[in-house]
Amino acid sequence: MPGPILEARGLHKHFGHLHVLKGVDLLVQERELVFVIGPSGSGKSTLLRCLNRLEEPSAGSITVDGIDLLDRRTDINKARQRIGMVFQSFNLYPHMTALGNVALALRKVQGRGRAEAEARAREALDRVHLADRAGHYPGQLSGGQQQRVAIARAIALEPRVMLFDEPTSALDPELVGGVLAAMRELRESGMTMVVVSHEMGFARAAADRVIFMDGGRIVEQGPPAAIFGAPQEERTRAFIGQIERNHA
Ligand SMILES: Nc1ncnc2c1ncn2[C@@H]1O[C@H](COP(=O)(O)OP(=O)(O)OP(=O)(O)O)[C@@H](O)[C@H]1O
C-alpha cells in the first residue's frame, strides 16, 4: 500500500482578523484523486494555496514526498517542483508559443538546456493531445487548449502531486470537457491530484474521495457515492441539496 504523498496537519490561516482555515488535516495517498467542495468562502482555494506555500499557513505542518514544506531549511523552490499547480487563469506568456511556454518552465525552474527542454515540452504537450498545436501562440488557441498547455507546463516538471484550483471555471461550457478529459487521463496515468472545482460530475466519476469544507474546516469526507448520495452531516446535506436544485 503506497503511503501518503502529501500530509497536512492542523493547518490554520489567518488574514488579519479573518480566520479562514481552522485546523485542517489532509492526508493524500499516492495516486489518489481528492476532490474538495464547499460554499464560496469556505477556504478551499486558501487550503490549496497553503499546500504549495503560495500562502504562508499561520500554523500547522505540511510534508510533501517526505519534505517538510514549512521548515526554514527547506529550499522552497526545489520543494515546489514536486507540486504542480493549475489555476483558473492559464497565465501563459502571450508572446511565446505553446511549446515555448512549456519549455520556459523547464529551462527556468529546472535549468535544462534548450534542446532538452523542448523535447520534454513536446512530450508534455503530447500527453494533453496538443502536439499539433506546439507552434501556436496562446491567442491562437481556445481557452480549453490554453488550459491544457498550462497542465502540460505543470506536468513537464514531473511533480509528485498536482493541485487544481477551479481549472474549468473560466471556460465556456463547451470547452470544459476537453480539460476534464485531460485531467482524467492524468489521473489514470497515476498522478496524485487535489482538485477544487464545481464540476460535480467529474467528482462523481473520477474522485476517490470527496471532501466537504465549510467555515474553514473539513466537515465531512468520503467516497463520492457516500458524499453525494448519503451525506451524514446536516451542512453537507444542505450544500448537496442546493447544488442539485441548481442543476434541476
Ligand atoms: N489574500 C487574502 N487576503 C484577505 N482575505 C483573503 C485572501 N484570500 C482569501 N481571503 C478570504 O478568505 C476566505 C476564504 O477564501 P477562499 O478563496 O479560500 O474560499 P473558497 O472556498 O475558495 O471560495 P470560492 O469558492 O468562492 O473560490 C474568504 O472570505 C476570502 O475573502
Main sheet, how many strands, which sense, barrel? 6 strands, mixed
Strand content: 25-35%
Q: Helical stretch count?
A: 9
List cofactors, ions and other ligands.
Answer: adenosine-5'-triphosphate
Please state the structural category. Answer: alpha/beta
Give the mean pLDDT: 94
The side-by-side strand order for the widest beta sheet comes to 6-7-8-3-9-10
Low-confidence stretches: none
Percent helix range: 25-40%
- Helices and strands, in N-to-C order? EEEHEEHEHHHEHEHEEHH
* DSSP summary, beta strand count: 10
Q: N- to C-terminal separation?
A: 40 Å
InterPro entries: AAA+_ATPase (IPR003593), ABC_ATPase_HisP-typ (IPR030679), ABC_transporter-like_ATP-bd (IPR003439), ABC_transporter-like_CS (IPR017871), MetN_ABC_transporter-like (IPR050086), P-loop_NTPase (IPR027417)
Domain ABC transporter: 6-240
Family: Belongs to the ABC transporter superfamily.
Keywords: Amino-acid transport, ATP-binding, Cell membrane, Membrane, Nucleotide-binding, Transport
How does this model look, in words?
The termini are far apart. Helix 3 (about 100-110) packs parallel to helix 5, helix 4 crosses helix 5 (about 145-155) and helix 5 (about 145-155) packs parallel to helix 6 (about 175-190). The protein has 9 helices and 10 strands. With about 250 residues, it is of the alpha/beta class. Strand 9 (about 210-215) and strand 10 (about 215-220) form a beta hairpin. Helices cover about 40% and strands about 25% of the residues. The chain is globular and about 55 Å long. The chain has helices at about 45-50, 75-80, 100-110, 115-125, 145-155, 175-190, 200-205, 225-230, 235-245; strands at about 5-15, 20-30, 35, 60-65, 65-70, 85, 160-165, 190-195, 210-215, 215-220. The strands form 2 sheets. Strands 6-7-8-3-9-10 form a 6-stranded mixed sheet, with helices on both faces. The mean pLDDT is about 95.
